[in-house]
Design brief:
The protein has helices at residues 7-15, 21-48, 54-61, 69-83, 94-112, 120-141, 171-193, 240-251, 343-360, 383-388, 393-402, 409-435; strands at residues 145-146, 149-151, 160-162, 166-169, 208-213, 219-225, 272-279, 284-290, 298-307, 312-319, 321-322. The chain is an alpha+beta fold. The protein has two domains: 19-131; 148-251 and 267-380, Protein Transport Mog1p, Chain A.
């Protein structure tokens, strides 16, 4: 029997705007993510209230090998937790994530003592879990300055306030922390693949200090940037949408070739949480936007700038996330408040935590924004550079292809191949929609 659209459905389908194939995939992945989170929420009480690992814990404490049912119970419980997403849902289902940590902690003790040999899937999970644990431990062991306190970062910048609940790590120690974390990731990757990993280059430029919340809910960096005098721009608010388009292009530089989205990334999910705004009287600017990743808690980029005569203080978030999809779930379990999962809530919490620090930032006399003179070195960049960033090598290559650079004939050929592939994707997607 042939499937026939009703007149109303047919009219709706005919008038619906064309949708990029990748956008359909991004919406599909987001829907699946919400369903998986709901499944985890329902599973959490069943997996955390009646804990089946007490006998296992007792055997490990007695240093007895886990054999027979004991080994099966530990394996099955860990695999069940992994199956409902417990390792992933730190923000979405905290109780389930805590149960994962508790279970993997037992597995770590048993495997390290030679009492238990995990199957391959859990062996890999254990490697990742240990890397996360070691990363947190390395961070906690660093000599953080815990607010309330004062800190100094540059001779031209007055001491500034570190508020209560905020930790500060000076540039040398911040660079050391970055190096240790890179080494942990390198070792974990080598253990997962069985192949040696090359040492990673230094990730942080000199002069960058670390900031983090005492409860680990966010992390950020603070640095004094020596770019010369950068003029404030009164048109920022007016140009907010144009700047957002540039950010989208930077995140997904081949979007203008109709590769609008690539599954986990969606241009539609790149939006302003705080449009670029500035305070000329205080010589400051700030902005915040979501990064467009759809399969997981969405990342948020927050930035605050204090302008000086020839320097700028830049605060930028390193780890700020929001499980935005949870806010779209109807009938959340008791204890969940939808607004707490929005990017706006995450940014508001960060701003509240950093407000005393931001307000205390002040350049010393002779180095303030208003002290800039005709002989002050000028920055080659505008504030747009801080918002949008450097062109990536991929974007530069795409621009060469699009411009049909005569010196880059192989690039032109690659562009033709990409356009043909894009056309095939669009046709296949339309056929799929018609078939449905």
């Amino acid at each position: 029997m042939a499937f026939v659209l009703s007149p109303l459905r047919a009219q709706t389908a005919a008038s619906a705007p064309e949708e990029a194939p990748g956008e359909f995939m991004a919406r599909h992945e987001q829907s699946m993510y919400r369903l998986n989170v709901q499944h985890a929420m329902v599973s959490a009480p069943l997996l955390t209230v009646a804990w089946p690992l007490k006998p296992v814990e007792k055997l490990i404490a007695q240093k007895k090998p886990l054999e027979g049912d004991a080994a099966k119970v530990l394996t099955l419980h860990a695999q069940t937790l992994a199956g409902v997403g417990a390792p992933l849902y730190e923000l979405e289902v905290p109780s389930l994530h805590a149960e994962w940590n508790r279970t993997m902690g037992l597995m770590d003790r048993a495997e390290s003592a030679g009492l238990y040999q995990p199957p391959e899937d859990l062996r890999k999970s254990l490697i990742v879990w240990r890397a996360v644990r070691d990363d947190l431990a390395v961070s906690d062991d660093m000599p953080w300055v815990k607010g309330p306190a004062m800190a100094a970062l540059d001779p031209n910048l007055a001491e500034f306030s570190i508020p209560e609940g905020v930790w500060y790590l000076a540039p040398p120690q911040c660079a050391a922390l970055s190096g240790k974390r890179s080494e942990i990731r390198r070792a974990a990757k080598a253990a997962l693949t069985g192949k040696p990993e090359p040492a990673a280059p230094d990730a942080l430029p000199p002069g960058v200090a670390c900031l983090r919340a005492a409860d680990r809910s966010w992390s950020a960096s603070i640095a004094v940037v020596n770019r010369g005098h950068m003029a404030m721009d009164a048109t920022l608010r007016v140009r907010a949408w144009a700047l957002l388009g540039s950010v989208r292009s930077r995140h997904n530089p081949i979007s203008h070739l109709r590769f609008d989205n690539n599954g986990t990334y969606s241009e539609a999910a790149v939006r302003w949480v705080i449009p670029p705004q500035q305070d000329e009287a205080k010589a400051t600017a700030r902005w915040a936007l979501t990064n467009g990743m759809q399969k997981q808690p969405i990342g948020i980029d927050y930035a605050f700038v204090k302008f000086g005569a020839s320097q700028q203080v830049l605060i930028s978030s390193e780890r700020l996330r929001a499980a935005e999809a949870v806010a779209q779930i109807d009938n959340l379990p008791e204890g969940y408040a939808k607004e707490r999962f929005t990017p706006e809530y995450a940014v508001a919490r960060l701003q509240e935590a950093l407000a005393p620090l931001e307000q205390s930032l002040a350049f010393r006399p002779g180095h303030r924004y208003e002290d800039a003179g005709a002989d002050t070195p000028r920055s080659p960049n505008t504030i747009d550079f801080l918002i949008i960033g450097n062109p990536s090598p991929m974007e530069q290559a795409v621009k060469r292809m699009v411009n049909n650079d005569e010196r880059n004939r192989p690039g032109s050929l690659l562009l033709i191949v990409l356009l043909i592939a894009a056309g095939v994707i669009v046709v296949k997607a339309r056929e799929l929609k018609k078939a449905r």
